[in-house]
Design brief:
single chain, two-stranded antiparallel ribbon, about 35% helix, about 15% strand
Length: about 90
């Protein structure tokens, strides 16, 4: 039994769902189980890379917890990098 995660991607020809491991989609050449059209690894490369990145981020979040935001939320213009509110800013509020 493989521990590699399976994903479902649509065949670019017949649009049937192909439920296989990520390594299957990385093979140089395969055939769609539904329509038997030839599939090259490059056809799925961008999607597979995005999936691997998302899975790595998910694992990182499970291990280290969700990242904390540095934004205090007091200013709409801070863009997530505001400093503690100064006395002058507090006087304006």
């Amino acid at each position: 039994m493989s521990l590699e995660p399976k994903v479902s991607l649509d065949c670019p020809y017949c649009k049937a769902a192909i439920y296989e491991t990520l390594s299957w989609f990385k093979k140089d050449y395969s055939s769609c189980p539904a329509c038997d059209q030839g599939l090259a690894a490059g056809q799925f490369a961008a999607v597979v890379a995005n999936l691997e990145q998302a899975m790595a981020a998910s694992i990182e979040e499970m291990i280290n917890g969700k990242p904390e935001s540095s934004c205090c939320g007091n200013k709409s213009s801070c863009g997530g990098s505001c400093s503690p509110t100064s006395q002058e800013d507090q006087a304006e509020q």
